[in-house]
Design brief:
Helices cover 33% and strands 9% of the residues. The chain has 28 helices and 19 strands. It catalyses: 3-O-(N-acetyl-beta-D-glucosaminyl)-L-threonyl-[protein] + H2O = L-threonyl-[protein] + N-acetyl-D-glucosamine; 3-O-(N-acetyl-beta-D-glucosaminyl)-L-seryl-[protein] + H2O = N-acetyl-D-glucosamine + L-seryl-[protein]. It is an enzyme of class 3 (hydrolase). Its EC number is 3.2.1.169.
Length: 986
């Protein structure tokens, strides 16, 4: 062994610890990376790898050299890392289209890394994850196997760079589940291990792409195949596979006992930069918990160390999964203690003043390269299954690689900021999928509702033996703009499947960009002067102020029915785009009612609650579990308060139910306050990164709270209708165990806590009401959705007047009779069916409503007896030669009531009307959330469908309801031609 080899061996003993920027999505900015180096230095981490998959010069266009401006920025970044004693690793991913036998390609690779070396970079990485494992015809004649081809090029580059002190290699089989046929006998892994030069470290994600835990046994096995200990590429905090999940919990699932069996750990965390402080801080604590560890067989397989065995009983109640106890209760590192230790530093970051970055508009480049397997047009074979980091792919993976995600959440060919055409959205786009257990293991009701359709999985999604990802069709349609060409009722009723759901929440991934080109930082986040040509992505401002002074303007709210209606924001939209903040921050906060805010400072309790709501991929936090367990209990025990259920009412059970319901509502209020504190805090960068996730969860929690408040009325007559049918819930037999076991990749359980709560609601299959694209602006106003009260009558009448003229204000039309349109359109609902009415209220008062009745025929019969006589007396019929609009309305009170035909009533027996004031309802998702509340109530009362009645000339309102998932119904015969009926199954 030469002196150089001995020196290299001594240097290699330094334990590698740090961060990989290796996710799919918008890369971090230069300022964020410099802040990252500071975090890493304080946490004791020593290595950063630059590997953003969507930086086109890292992956898609790896042959291109950096421009002068990019070179300067990269040089500054490398210098900044050295100042913080962080090793900067430049990674390149040439595997998409490299020809290993082509001398020009190899020279291009050397030239690219040589250029980066001139910037001061001394560490490099070659990544071959997420690529086609087949050699081209030219390469097959030069190399015996794919592994030999990768080894040949990597060794040549390594030696060309004079064997840098740190050189990392990511294999194509980067985890045990990808090893063919397994780790021990994989020809590829054994080739890599035996042929790759000993100075090259090899990266490994563990048993899975996202591994719940790492054991000594598994690490020894891979070290044997690789002929060296692995460097762990850890995806435990990665979230780029699910647009609704983000992970704020502490580093977990890895005992410090495994440190001697690996050469390092680098975490590939959340795409949202600000969300990663806890992951980085706790990883640093973990790495330092066993600095001088020696190999001990203390955690072999499922065996725990003697120390862990001794104290297991003392801590067993603190943990949910016994399998994780060895790693969780190691006395040197405990995740909960690490979380608490990191909290003061995290709060300091949350309270500091920091603006979000401005990113340049992405370079427009082709998304399909001849001969390359990259982001292709829909329907064209694309990426292989996700590797480090995780990604969703546009097409099904090869059949010999089970258990991997395949369908992308959106159109990958559309860059952020570009509005796609609705007609170009691929038909195979899935809504966020719902997990489903093996049917033989389910504990479900014996019979489903009459309109229940069997679930079907999205195209290409894997179906593991234990967990199967599936989807119940939701009943939404494309927008209709007029009453012409209405779908016949018979066609709707006999259709084999309901219209496809619209994936409104999920956003398309970005095109590759240059993450080394930055916009100049503005002095103010609210600066909207930059145009798209300058590279900015300005956000609209949700201004807080009085209603529009011009009440004659069109007042129909525009709902985003798909990603084609607004500039698209990516999954990490918060940090990528310039979110505008209102200058006037609200002084109110919301719980079940609006109370004065006592303390609007983000406290440690708030931070702990935030972590609990967005915990880890295989575990929900304590507060998240509270919401699940309490909602499940309230739903399943509501029979104790149902009126006239045939049994004696137990007053203790009634009191207990209401007490627990109030506690649930209060907890929702605490979660709602997080959003207010977040938007009013000084760290706008943190706020932007977290906003869309918290907005989504709180919206679902508000629906759950309104549902519980309605259940408190004791009107639920169909306990069976309260069960869920699309798949299973957190409480189904075997589901929780499968979720927490780590045997399945976490993308099998999509949607996070939001999806778990949705499945506890009776309309869980109505995905268009839950999976909604976050707003393109920050909304600081607070809203509450609750059941209607008698005191709301004047407010809802006023809203009805301001929206009665096809969405426009009717005040000038009925100046002397402000209540006449309310009496005509909603009076019978609020007087005869008030239990099925809900309102939206802001800090001023009610600003939207939905009124409904379970049975339209029953409502008409009651109206004839109790409502019509009263309005006829209130508005007596007078004879006039010239009829004004008021006279026409009065005439309608004295005419026969419109009655829905039996053919429509048989499928859509319930009736409703929904109106909002757009000048006050700034959140575009609120109409859908409001509709979800009333549909829950109707479903629990036995309804299977709902319809609404509009005048044939109300084209704007027809379009409004169509965007809420209603479609036109044509009665079979004998119905007025001036009435349009729109229906929606429940």
């Amino acid at each position: 062994m030469t002196g150089k080899d001995i020196t290299r061996k001594a240097e290699s003993k330094r334990f590698i610890s740090g961060v990989v920027e290796g996710f799919y999505g918008r890369p971090w900015s230069a300022d964020q990376r410099k802040l990252l180096f500071s975090w890493m230095q304080k946490s004791g981490l020593n290595t950063y790898m630059y590997a953003p998959k969507d930086d086109y010069k890292h992956r898609a266009y790896w042959r291109e050299l950096y421009s002068v401006e990019e070179a300067e920025n990269l040089t500054n970044l490398i210098s900044a890392s050295k100042e913080k004693d962080v090793v900067f690793v430049y990674a390149v991913s040439p595997g998409l289209d490299i020809s290993f036998s082509n001398v020009k390609d190899v020279q291009a690779l050397k030239r690219k890394l040589e250029q980066v070396a001139t910037f001061g970079c001394e560490a490099f990485a070659m990544l071959f994850d997420d690529i086609d494992p087949e050699l081209s015809e030219a390469d097959r004649s030069a190399f015996q196997s794919f592994g030999l081809a990768q080894v040949s090029v990597s060794n040549e580059v390594f030696e060309h760079l004079h064997q840098p002190k740190l050189f990392l290699f990511c294999p194509t089989e980067y985890c045990a589940s990808r090893a063919v046929p397994n780790v021990a006998t994989s020809e590829y892994l054994n080739t890599i291990g035996s042929k790759l030069l000993p100075g090259i470290d090899i990266m490994w994600t563990g048993p899975k792409v996202v591994s719940k835990k790492l054991t000594v046994t598994a690490l020894e096995e891979i070290a044997t195949s690789l002929k060296r200990p692995a460097v762990i590429w850890d995806n435990i905090h990665a979230n780029d596979y699910d647009p609704r999940r983000i992970f704020l919990g502490p580093y977990d699932g890895r005992s410090p006992e495994v440190i001697p069996y690996i050469n390092g750990v680098m975490t590939n965390p959340n795409t949202e930069f600000e969300a990663n402080f806890m992951a980085i801080h706790t990883l640093g604590q973990w790495c330092q918990s066993n600095p001088n560890g020696v190999k001990k067989d203390l955690i072999k397989g499922d065996q725990m160390s003697p120390v862990a065995s001794d104290i297991k009983l003392e801590t067993e109640s603190d943990y949910i999964c016994d399998e994780d106890i060895p790693s969780r209760i190691d006395i040197r590192y405990q995740p909960k203690a690490a979380l608490k230790a990191a909290m003061p530093d995290w709060l300091a970051e949350i309270h500091c003043r920091r603006e979000p970055p401005r990113h340049p508009f992405p370079r427009v480049i082709p998304t399909y390269l001849p001969g390359a397997l990259m982001s292709c047009p829909p329907g064209v074979s694309s990426y292989l299954p996700p590797g480090p980091p995780v990604v969703l792919n546009p097409s099904p993976p090869p059949s010999n690689l089970p258990g991997v995600p395949s369908c992308p959440p959106g159109n990958p060919t559309i860059p952020p900021g570009i509005t796609p055409f609705t007609s170009n959205v691929p038909a195979e786009l899935p809504s966020a999928a719902q997990p489903c257990m093996n049917p033989s293991e389910l504990e479900a009701p014996s019979t489903p509702p009459n309109n229940y359709l069997p679930p079907s999985p999205p195209a290409g999604l894997p179906m593991p033996d234990i967990i199967k990802t599936c989807l119940t069709p939701s009943y939404t349609t494309q927008t209709i703009t007029s009453a012409v060409g209405l779908t016949p009722l018979a066609t709707i009723c006999t259709s084999a499947q309901a219209p496809l759901p619209i994936p409104t929440f999920i956003q398309p991934p970005s095109l590759p960009v240059s993450s080394l080109l930055e916009l100049p930082q503005s002095d103010s986040i609210s600066d909207t002067a930059l145009s798209s040509e300058s590279g900015a992505e300005p956000m609209e401002v949700a201004t807080t102020g009085p209603p529009d002074s011009s009440e004659s303007s069109r007042n129909v709210p525009v709902l985003n029915n798909s990603v084609s209606h607004t500039p698209s924001l990516e999954k990490q939209n918060s940090s990528d785009s310039l979110m505008q903040i209102e200058s006037d921050m609200n002084d109110k906060n919301e719980d079940s009612i609006f109370n004065d805010r006592v303390d609007n400072v983000f406290s440690e309790e708030d931070a702990l609650l935030l972590v609990d709501l967005f915990y880890m991929p295989f575990e929900h936090g304590a507060q998240g579990l509270f919401f699940l367990q309490r909602l499940h209990w309230l739903r399943n025990n509501v029979q104790s308060i149902i009126r006239g259920n045939g049994s004696d009412t137990n007053q203790f059970e009634v009191t207990e139910w209401h007490h627990l319901a109030d506690e649930f509502s209060a907890k929702v209020g605490e979660a709602v306050s997080l959003l207010s504190k977040l938007t009013s805090g000084p760290n706008k960068s943190f706020m932007c990164d977290m906003y869309s996730y918290l907005w989504d969860l709180i919206s679902i929690l508000k629906i759950c709270r309104a549902y519980v408040q309605w259940l408190a009325k004791g009107l639920a007559t169909q306990p069976l209708a309260q069960q869920t049918f699309s798949c299973v819930t957190w409480f189904s037999k075997g589901y929780k165990e499968a979720f927490m076991s780590g045997d399945q990749e976490p993308w099998v359980f999509r949607g996070g806590l939001q999806a778990e709560l949705q499945r506890l609601l009776p309309i869980d299959s109505a995905h268009d009401l839950f999976y909604i694209k976050p707003p393109d602006y920050i909304i600081t106003k607070t809203y509450n959705i609750r059941p209607y009260k008698a005191l709301d009558e004047d407010a809802v009448y006023q809203i009805c007047l301001k929206t009665c003229d096809d969405g426009m204000d009717g005040t000038d039309v009925f100046p002397n009779n402000p209540h006449i349109m309310g009496d005509k359109l909603i009076g019978k609902f609020v007087n005869l069916s008030s239990d099925y009415c809900f309102v939206i209220e802001d800090e001023v008062g009610v600003c939207g409503y939905v009124v409904a009745a379970v049975d339209a025929h029953d409502l008409n019969n009651k109206s004839k007896m109790a409502w019509v006589p009263s309005v006829q007396e209130k508005y007596p019929l007078t004879e006039k030669k010239d009829h004004s609009p008021i006279d026409d309305v009065i005439q309608s009170f004295h005419s026969d009531l419109n009655t829905v035909s039996d053919d429509i009533h048989s499928k859509y027996p319930s009736v409703l009307r929904l109106d909002i004031l757009p000048s006050r309802v700034e959140d575009p998702a609120l109409p859908r959330r409001l509709l979800a509340c009333v549909l829950c109530a109707l479903k629990c009362s036995g309804s299977k469908g709902v319809h609404c009645e509009l005048n044939v000339g109300d084209k704007f309102m027809v379009d409004f309801y169509a965007k809420l998932g209603f479609f036109a119904l044509t009665p079979l015969e004998g119905h007025p031609n001036d009435i349009v009926f729109l229906g929606r199954p429940i």
